[in-house]
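Section 3.1: Structural characterization of target chains.
Under the original work plan, the team committed to producing a structural model for every single-chain target entering the pipeline before any wet-lab resources were allocated. The record below documents one such target. The sequence was received from the expression subgroup and is listed exactly as submitted; it comprises 60 residues.
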Amino acid sequence: MARKKGSSKASAKAEEVKGAAKEKAGRAVGNERLTAEGRAERAKGDLRQAGKKAKDAFGK
């Protein structure tokens, strides 16, 4: 069965880290839009990661 692009736990974690970096950069330069984008990206990664963990816990 083929997996969707970016559907692994690792890519979810990478998205979370990327979002956190964006958020920090936005705060450092005072760019609210960049901060908000980073916050949203980090939250999306968190949710995807939680979903993958739940899926693993309850057996695919």
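The mean pLDDT is 86.
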